Amino acid sequence: MKxxxxxxxxxxxxxxTGYGLWLYLLLLIVGYNGLKAAMTLIQNASLDxxxxxxxxxxxxxxxATTISFFARKRWTPMLFISFxxxxxxxxxxxxxxxxxxxxxxxxxxxxxxxxxxxxxxIPYMLRSERIKEVFVK
Length: 137
Known about the structure:
This protein is an all-alpha fold.
């Protein structure tokens, strides 16, 4: 009779398959922000060029991320990374533009929130074993 506690018993227990709650949460964030960008385009027809390009890119990335997420495409982590980097660049741009005209109206909370999300999500997408196992097609 084999021993229950052999070397391979620990390997199989720690390995989890599937998406996991963390990835669904990230997809929810991407989808919600894509929906917000779409609503902004519908409600405000007079957007300036930067906001228009940002909203269109956000919608395209959100749709592509959602489709590739459920199809388990290997470029899905790069879409997540591009989404969060796009948000960071936009928030930094808006902060710099607002600082030149209104130094007291900068939204530091949004800037810190997006920076922290980038600090957490980007290394997770690049180094996680679960990500490498789930998105393989």
